[in-house]
Amino acid sequence: MEIQLIKEDITKVQADAIVNAANTSLLGGGGVDGAINKAGGKEILEECRAIRNRQGGCKVGEAVFTTAGKLNAKIVIHTVGPKWNKGKSNESEKLKNCYSNSLKIAEKLNLKSIAFPNISTGIYGYPKLEAAQIAIETVRNHKTKSINLLLFVCYDEENFNTYKVNLQAWE
Ligand code: AR6
User: Fold this and answer.
1) Separation between Cα atoms, residue 79 and residue 82, nearest integer Å
2) What pTM did the predictor assign?
């Protein structure tokens, strides 16, 4: 699996699956969630509502998927990152699960490419260095079958530079 780093708005990215940093309600929010729902159109939120009615939202670390609406993708995977609590609430394990459960959904659907935002590093306040290290380690250790391209999509300069340095360390 090839890993690419880009600095971009994730709603402009072309990938089979675009991952959203959602919340447990699945009813939308700010940050990347707001951007995805705005650019993708109301079908995404409608499907999220249906999932919520069926199973009562999405737990931290878990993932569900919906249509990608008007986005350049086949699906949007909604995963819920942990809120940073000074490392006292098993946040690293929960964040790791976000990446691996999203990959599992993409693999199950036989998708070839997936784009991740920097889950939990905005409103949820996860320290960017630790979050990048977990993201990189988790996807590197994940045995993929169908996925041949993974995009880390950074929106802010600090995340982009952090990923750049930490991805190089793996090469
Ligand atoms: N494209 C790519 N990345 C983005 C974009 C974008 N358009 N906009 C922001 N980011 P956040 P969280 C980056 O706050 O911390 C929502 O209200 C941003 O720079 O979107 O997991 C949800 O509904 C940051 O690095 O998600 C939840 O309530 C990263 O996306 C809550 O926020 C994640 O920031 C989730 O908080």
Assistant:
1) 10
2) 0.98
